[in-house]
Amino acid sequence: MAPTTANVANEAKVANIKTLTGSELNSVPSEYTYVKNPNDQADASDPEHSIPTIDFAQLTSSSPELRSKAIEELGRACQEWGFFQVINHGVPESLLKSMIEVCHKFFDLPEEEKKEFQSRKLLEPIKCGTSFNVAIDKVRLWRDYLKVIAHPEFHSLHKPAEYSDVSLEFSKQTRQVATELLSGISESLGLEAEYIAKAMNWDRGLQILAANYYPACPQPDLAIGIPPHTDHGLVTLLIQNDMGGLEVQHNGKWVLVDCAPGAFVVNIGDQMQILTNDKYKSVWHRAVVNNRATRISIAVPHGPALETAALPIPELLGGEAPKYIGMSYEEFMELQASPAAYMMPCLDHLRVKAE
Ligand code: OGA
Ligand code: NI
């Protein structure tokens, strides 16, 4: 949909959430009001409600027994949850903290300095903004974001000064973990380790560093950081500062993700669900807000090369009909961001219709 002049004019007027919460604010303005159903919340004290843990040291171990055990656990986590935490991944916690810190510094820059990165183009290499898409949002989201494409081409900011070095190292090391996870996932499906990477042109695959800024909210039950959605890529790796807020849908309830300090939270994305013909699900998740302190998360979606279209892998069909038609990753992302598919299960658009 082409933006109308009125939309563009309105957009320019929308203050970001940092500015809005910078002044004394005692209640959630009506444009941001989003009410969740408390009955859908999982019982936090139930140990059944914690995401599985994958030990990366075991997954990459030279011992075939340890590795095959980790691969089996990985397969189960992908099938039963679509979400898991990865521990012992070898990326220094200090690097993760530095990445969160430089992103925090970016959000703290004077508004004038951030303006040059405002863009409405989906795949703008460097882009910041507020909410999701203020031209089409029905409810405004309690978050600002910064999205920087780090692969196949690395892009960076000059301000804050440390952003460039820190994000380069962070993107490389995170990508290495994602690459190993992709091999493990391939093997967990009974395929050769490189199968998915080759089929998805992983060497030219997309990697985005997407930082989310969620300031404290005076009425957290009446606002939302990011409403329920699935991620578009193959796998997303996420880190956060010491504030939680990521919730995952599991057996019809929302489960708050509690992860070990320094762990990556990993989830399966839509392209993986297509490849596996629904065996591994791209699970719904959302970000809730709190009234105590600013939460920062960095989601790092990893996807195929932009022109690559995922299709169900023939070896995995086992006599079943393929459930999806192909669409290039770029077109898929455009569809997901379009008003027609706004926060809707985008995969349904690719589903083969029953005769
Ligand atoms: C995302 C996302 C959750 C979070 O950026 O896609 O789901 O906890 N973020 O910030
Ligand atoms: Ni997400």
UniProtKB/TrEMBL annotation:
- Keyword Oxidoreductase in the entry? The reply is yes
User: Do you know which PROSITE patterns this protein is assigned to?
Assistant: FE2OG_OXY (PS51471)
E.C. numbers: 1.14.11.9
Q: Name one GO molecular function term.
A: L-ascorbic acid binding
Q: Which UniProt keywords apply?
A: Dioxygenase, Iron, Metal-binding, Oxidoreductase, Vitamin C
Which parts of the sequence belong to the Fe2OG dioxygenase domain?
204-304
Q: Which InterPro entries match?
A: DIOX_N, IPNS-like_FE2OG_OXY, IPNS-like_sf, Oxoglu/Fe-dep_dioxygenase_dom, Plant_2OG-oxidoreductases
The record ties this protein, via Gene3D superfamilies, to:
B-lactam Antibiotic, Isopenicillin N Synthase, Chain (2.60.120.330)
- Name of one Pfam family that matches: DIOX_N
PANTHER family cross-referenced by the UniProt entry: OXOGLUTARATE/IRON-DEPENDENT DIOXYGENASE
Record family assignment: Belongs to the iron/ascorbate-dependent oxidoreductase family.
The name on file for this protein is Putative flavanone 3-dioxygenase
What organism is recorded for this protein?
Rosa chinensis
